[in-house]
Write a structure and sequence with these properties.
This protein has 86 residues and is mostly helical. It has helices at residues 2-22, 27-50, 59-81. The relative contact order is 0.21.
Amino acid sequence: MFSFVFWVLLCWFIVNVIWMWFVLKNQTYQRVFAWINVCAVVIGFWVYYGVAHDPSGIAIWFIWLNWINVVLTCLQFYFGYRKLNN
């Protein structure tokens, strides 16, 4: 389960980063995907701390992915809720 969730979160992160940069001005999409990222972050930390895993291997990458996803979520909330001047 640990490595499966890692690979799912990694694929989601890559798709989300690429997608995010193409629709920076669409605040609705940014908000929706920021909230989806909140769910991904919660699941990621829950799996990292709640499931037994070998401390070597992908564990360090898993925690880095979780924290980078936190930063991405903050960016998406910023782009989603900022005031646009037209």
